């Protein structure tokens, strides 16, 4: 579970990688983009190099959502190195479970209209990180908005105004009791043309169960895998209404 390693920096987490799979080269490239303060500071922070910018991220070690996890770094690296196939310029992008804001910052630096969302208690740090790293640097100023999965979706994110080209999600599936609400949120925010880019670290059987449930509503494609990190990168789009009808009927089942 995330809390077991919450005291480690993302660089230290990556250094713990074991194995000899091909993904280790990419992991090494990602590690080269991370740096930590040389002196002990009163505020915990990490630094990253993406999109030609130095990004400084303030963390809070008492919360899952206020730490930079390796999944976020994998997604940032993917966005930067795949701009030909996934061009963010002028695209409407929402990140769910944005945490520290790193992924949203990188998407903004790549030219997207970004809405970064998370729980209300995380919005202060999220806004701080996004503001300090995007002000006067981005084509479009990113927004920060509260989003509690499954809560007041019609009120805060009405389907009629949801026009997202991409939904970004990094490490949103772990040992929490809101997997059903997460699935409902994915479904609510998606139009037929929306592309989900989702990076997930597999820790427990719950992750596999969620993927199976996710496939009932979405066509899921594994883009890349990092066995040494137990991380996979997925691309997903909504199933056609006819093929999803069966999945929606069973979507009331509860995760065990």
Automatic annotation (TrEMBL):
Q: Which CDD domains match?
A: AdoMet_MTases
Entry keyword Cytoplasm = no
Gene3D superfamilies linked to this entry: Vaccinia Virus protein VP39
Q: Name one GO biological process term.
A: methylation
Q: For this UniProt entry, which segments traverse the membrane?
A: none
Instruction: List, alphabetically, the InterPro entries matched.
Output: Methyltransf_16, SAM-dependent_MTases_sf
Question: Which superkingdom?
Answer: Eukaryota
Keywords, A to Z, come to: Acetylation, Methyltransferase, S-adenosyl-L-methionine, Transferase
Q: Name one GO molecular function term.
A: methyltransferase activity
A Pfam short name: Methyltransf_16
Recorded protein name is: Methyltransferase like 21E, pseudo
- Please tell me the species this chain comes from: Panthera tigris altaica (Siberian tiger)
Gene name of the record: METTL21EP
């Amino acid at each position: 579970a995330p809390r077991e390693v919450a005291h480690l920096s993302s660089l230290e987490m990556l250094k713990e990688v074991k194995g000899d799979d091909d993904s280790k080269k990419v992991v090494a490239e990602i590690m080269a983009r991370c740096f930590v303060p040389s002196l002990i500071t009163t505020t915990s922070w990490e630094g990253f190099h993406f999109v030609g910018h130095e990004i400084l991220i303030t963390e809070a070690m008492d919360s899952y959502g206020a730490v930079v996890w390796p999944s976020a770094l994998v997604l940032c690296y993917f966005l930067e190195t795949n701009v030909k196939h996934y061009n963010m310029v002028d695209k409407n992008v929402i990140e769910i479970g944005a945490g520290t804001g790193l992924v949203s910052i990188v998407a903004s630096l790549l030219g997207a209209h970004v809405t970064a969302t998370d729980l209300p208690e995380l919005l202060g740090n999220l806004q701080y990180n996004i503001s300090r790293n995007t002000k006067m640097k981005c084509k479009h100023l990113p927004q920060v908005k509260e989003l509690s999965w499954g809560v007041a979706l019609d009120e805060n994110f009405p389907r009629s105004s949801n026009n997202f080209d991409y939904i970004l999600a990094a490490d949103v599936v772990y040992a929490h009791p809101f997997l059903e609400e997460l699935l409902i949120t994915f479904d609510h925010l998606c139009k037929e043309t929306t592309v989900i880019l989702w990076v997930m670290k597999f820790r427990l059987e719950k992750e596999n169960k969620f993927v199976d449930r996710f496939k009932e509503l979405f066509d899921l494609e594994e883009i890349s895998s990092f066995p040494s990190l137990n991380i996979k990168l997925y691309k997903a789009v909504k199933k056609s209404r006819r093929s999803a009808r069966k999945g929606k009927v069973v979507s009331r089942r509860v995760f065990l």
